Amino acid sequence: xxxxxxxxxxxxxxxxxxxxxxxxxxxxxxxxxxxxxxxxxxxxxxxxxxxxxxxxxxxxxxxxxxxxxxxxxxxxxxxxxxxxxxxxxxxxxxxxxxxxxxxxxxxxxxxxxxxxxxxxxxxxxxxxxxxxxxxxxxxxxxxxxxxxxxxxxxxxxxxxxxxxxxxxxxxxxxxxxxxxxxxxxxxxxxxxxxxxxxxxxxxxxxxxxxxxxxxxxxxxxxxxxxxxxxxxxxxxxxxxxxxxxxxxxxxxxxxxxxxxxxxxxxxxxxxxxxxxxxxxxxxxxxxxxxxxxxxxxxxxxxxxxxxxxxxxxxxxxxxxxxx
Length: 323
What we know:
single chain; alpha/beta; seven-stranded mixed beta sheet; 10 helices; 7 strands; 36% helix; SAM-dependent_MTases_sf
């Protein structure tokens, strides 16, 4: 099968086209984090969150009730979702990731798969290529004013193609965030961001609409994981390749501050058995690329029955039932 590839030069122009909008994440740092995490000998033990979210996104793929000849999984080279799908639903799958290690260590699945080393912000495929695009827990929202990745996903989809994905929501890890802020205020007199900023649910629908998607669906879910302590939470985030990669991150966290934050975390949020919870808010989204066959809303004012008439009909039905 031949897949058309477009030049990265034109894509880089797309990424930098809006000079007034600032990217949130340092893509170079994110690549290094994912390379390091995927090179760990026990990297699979940190995949539990992506596995869970991948299965839930796969459920949404089955809900669409159609077969997809060609699909693209953006930014998840280890194919956490593909193992939950069958080749009866997805006939051929392309995997992209910025980490070569992730692609090399991908899991086996029954769907014929092809790997492409590519940044999510520079998808090297021509327009109208894929029937389905998937993405789970990838930093696809790097710019809230000009969502480059979402726009490119829209471009590579065929008309009437569907994008199904999941991103981490803004309330994720609020326990860790609050504990670190309180500890830094106490020990250092101020605080800096140590956790990557995440997408607010109020922004997600607007971003999908801005990219050109219609028939949007956005829903929220929470996954809570219990850990022995705060240090284990931070260690697992590092093992997931999800350490803070924002441009405004503070690289140094003092030992005294960490110990104080761990104590605050356990005091404020600790469970009775001594463990501490970490909450991951997951935002699921579905968007369709417009096509003339899709249902469209009728024009405003074209209705020939008013709500007042419906109310009268309801009253008349009740009267007839009584008689």
